[in-house]
Each structure stands twice: as structure tokens, then as C-alpha cells.
Amino acid sequence: MLVFALALVLLHPSLAVERYYTRPAEVCMPFNLPGPEDPCRPGGFYDFFYKRCTGYRPGDLCFQCHKGVYCEERVPLEECYLDASLHHPFVYDEYWSLFGGAPCDRVPNPYRLSYMFGTAGTGYPVTSRGMLMKPLDELTRQLHAMVGNAETEGRIIVPSVGATQGIVAALYALSQTVIEEEGVEVADVYVQSPYYNHLPWLTENLLKTTKWNLDADPTKNTTIEIVTWANNPDGQLLPPKQPNKRRRFFDLSYYWPTFVKNITKVDDDIMVFSGSKNNGLAGSRSGWVIVKEGDLSEKVMDFVGNETLAVAIDTQIRQILHTEKIIESHQSESPYGGFYDYMSRLNYNRIRILTQLFETSENYTFMNAELGTIGAVAWVKCNMPDCNCFDLFNEIGLLGEEGELFGASKAYLRLSLGNPNIEFRTMLLKIYTRLHGELPSIEAENEVLEDLERS
Ligand SMILES: Cc1ncc(COP(=O)(O)O)c(C=O)c1O
Questions:
Q1: Does any ligand 1 atom lie closer than 6 A to the CB of residue 235?
Q2: Spatial contact of 235 and 371, defined as CB atoms under 8 Å apart
Q3: pLDDT one-digit tens code per residue, 116-168
Q4: 197 in contact with ligand 1, CB cutoff 6 A
Q5: Hey, what CATH class is 116-331 in?
């Protein structure tokens, strides 16, 4: 009787302790309304923070070289400056605004109260010492299996704050291994030129155990080689010179169908990936390292665990939702094809148009076409003696990045292909002006664009 009374009291609704951790979060901020549902397109986009259209008032965000109430008016070419230096992947907005980005955040809020999953008694399934949500682990493996770009069997997936942290984690793991196995204090870091311009800084300033040394013998066991596929800036897939898998790693940030035509599976001990380059969400700072299980994976996890404790749970949730979308897009019938069909069509088309534009020029070479690569950036060479390619394009208001930053000469220039279509078209006109001289009117400019796009 007493037990029955106690049960009645405990089960009374006013006393029921809500299992708060099963309640889904109500965080739903679809920054990317699908194109047709966004009342602010085409001139702007709906801003969920300010709860209004942006792109409609003076000072609002407009595409570069555009102005006007609807941002629809093109500023005359000679009066505007187009920044194609840093690689901000705005080009993905076209896909996500057409098909919708991540809808809502479905993860219970209390999961955010811990630094990592699985540590606050939530029982949430995790991997990589609690740093990675299991659903993201599974989806990432599924994505790689679908694309066929990396072996995940026998590997740990360690989340990182972008590929940037992944690169340093790989350098840490490999340099510690060099020190243990070779009895030296510092490992040399070697890359083939031209190389991703951030690598020297990352190598020289964050670890005590790595030294940037392009004169090092890349085949020695005291040298770590960084191999970037597809290479930034020239899009090449150069084979590694370092034969020892415990002395090299692959930065595969651009090893996706969007940037590379014939993908075959990479089966190395450490492979670094980037969310920014794959799905475009650079601001979410998502990355991951696929690392062979054993001492190397322990070291990579030590690095990420100590440096940032873990990767933001919000970042992982966003990554889950977008990875799901990408996989689903390839499982459903759509006239556009899947995500990679769409993005590679867009990117290859840009390369084709640029190839056509540079074809008739003797003074300027489009290196991607010369090398037969795609990649994510345009690598341009100015052929005149002693020329400074950066200055030549800067003079006409097109800002790129100097070849010297990438270990090449002043004759080279990198132009980002991350800009949205409307800015890419302005870039084409700017390049046309440099190669062939000024166009007399807007009509002539439009004709050039039409010809190129039809080519
Ligand atoms: C070759 C290469 N690796 C890594 C990165 C860094 O990527 P993330 O944004 O994921 O840190 C970049 C960014 O431009 C890159 O070009």
C-alpha cells in the first residue's frame, strides 16, 4: 500500500522530472533560405539577425563592383576594384540557396554544455576520445566511400578546426615521431613549389619541432613532406617524393570532384580534409584528419585535445547536416544531378571560359589550362621579361595574390575562383581588359561575356 502511494506521488505530473536532455533544441536559423522562398532575392538576402532584407539600403552588402537599391547596377569597370585574393568560397551560395542549406539544428541543447560529447553523462555516442559525434564519424566515412577519395578503414577520424588545425596536428604527430625514431630535435618540413602560402607560417611559428626547409632532402627520414592535392595554387596532383608514409601527409582539402577530374582513392597514414573547400562553409571552421589507428592517431588526438580541447559542437552539427544533404543529393533523382555534379559543372565551366579567354594571348598564360588541371583558383603567368604580374592586374583593379607568396616568381599571380558568378563575370571583363585592351561600351562588354559563355 505504501509503495503504491509513493508511486502515485512520484508519478504525479507536477512532480515529473522532465528528462531535459531528450528535448530537441529549438535553434533554427536557416540563414540560407532556398532561393525561391527568399523574398529578398535576387537583389539581396533575408538577414535573420536584423530580420530584414539586406542588399537593399545604402551601405548594405552588395556584390563587388555592383551598387544600387537592388545591388543590380554594375559599376563601370575602370571605377571598381575586384578582390580575388583570399579564397572565400561564396560560389557555393548558388547551390545552397537553390537547394537549401542545413535546415534546423536538431541536437538537444544540453549537449552543448560539455566541451565534448559523451562527457556529461548524456551517453551520446562518440568517437575519437569524445571529440567527434558518432553520426558525423559515420557520415564522413559514408561520404568518402561515395566519392572514393580516401581510405577510412583502420583509420580514426579526428575533427579539427578547419584543415588549418589539421595541418598543424599532422605536423605535430609526424615531428614527434621523427624525434622519437631519429633522435633529432627538429624535423625539416619540405614541400614542392608552388605551395599553399600559409604553410611556411604554420610550420615556423606554432611548433618547436618543425623547421621550414625547402632545401631538405625529401627522401630522408628526418624530413616531413606536405603533399597538397589538388595543389593550391596550380591544381596539380604531384606524387610525393618522401616514400615513408610516417614522414609525410596529404592535405586533401581540394581532393573532391569539384576540383579534380579523375579521383582515385588515397591510402596514406595521415590525410587532412577541410569543410570549407568541400561544402563552402568556411566560416564554420570544420575540418578533419583521417589517421591510421595507432601511435600517429594518438598524437593527432593529443594535439587537438590539448590545443582546443575539441571542435565546437555547433560546427559538428552544421557539418552533419550539410554532409547529409550532399549524400542525399546523390541518392535522389534531380535534373541538376547531385551536389558534386552541380559544383563540378560550375567550376569546370569557369576553367573552360578562362582557357578560352587566355588562348589568344601571348603575354599571359592560364597555367591551369597549360597543366591540364582544374583546382579552386586560377594560376596566371605573365610572360613579359621581368614583369610583376600582381602589379599588372592590380593596375586595372583586379587584386590577386603575388606568386612569390607561393614559392613561385613575380611572374605568377593567383586569382580566387571562390567569388559568386556575378563577380566572376566582372573578373572576366577585367582580365579581358588586361589581355586585349579596354572595351568601348557596356554593350561590347556584354558581347564578350556572351561569346565566352557560349564558347
Ligand atoms: C591547400 C589548403 N589547405 C588548407 C586550407 C585551410 O582550410 P580550412 O579553411 O579548412 O582551414 C586552405 C585554405 O585556403 C588551403 O588552400
A1: no
A2: yes
A3: 766 555 667 778 887 888 889 999 999 999 999 999 999 999 999 999 999 99
A4: no
A5: alpha beta
Q: Is the CB of 282 under 6 A from ligand 1?
A: yes
Of 35-44, 154-163, 172-181, 280-289, the one with minimum mean pLDDT is 35-44
- 101 grid coordinates: 542549406
Residue type, 186: V
The CA-based angle 39-45-47, given to 5 degrees, is 105
Say how many Å lie between the CA of residue 161 and the centre of ligand 1. Answer: 11
CB atoms within 10 A of CB 454: 8
Output the CA 274–ligand 1 centroid distance in Å: 6
What's residue 16's pLDDT?
A: 39
Q: How many angstroms does the Cα of residue 199 sit away from the middle of ligand 1?
A: 10
- Class of the 339-454 domain? alpha beta
Q: Give the number of the atom of ligand 1 that is nearest the alpha carbon of residue 166.
A: 11
Q: Domain limits of the chain? A: 116-331, 339-454
From 161, 256, 277, give the residue whose CB has the most ligand 1 atoms within 8 Å, as the site to mutate.
277
Asked whether the beta carbons of 272 and 409 are under 8 A apart, the reply is: no
pTM of full prediction above 0.85: yes
List pLDDT tens digits, range 230-257: 999 999 999 999 999 999 999 999 999 9
Q: 16-51, pLDDT tens digit by residue?
A: 333 333 333 434 444 556 566 777 776 677 777 777
The sheet carrying 377-382 orders its strands as 364-366, 377-382, 412-416, 401-402
Angle at 242 between CA 241 and CA 247, to 5 degrees: 155
Q: 54 falls in which pLDDT band (50, 70, 90)?
A: confident
Secondary structure (3-state) at 291: strand
C-beta of 159 in contact with ligand 1 (< 6 A):
no
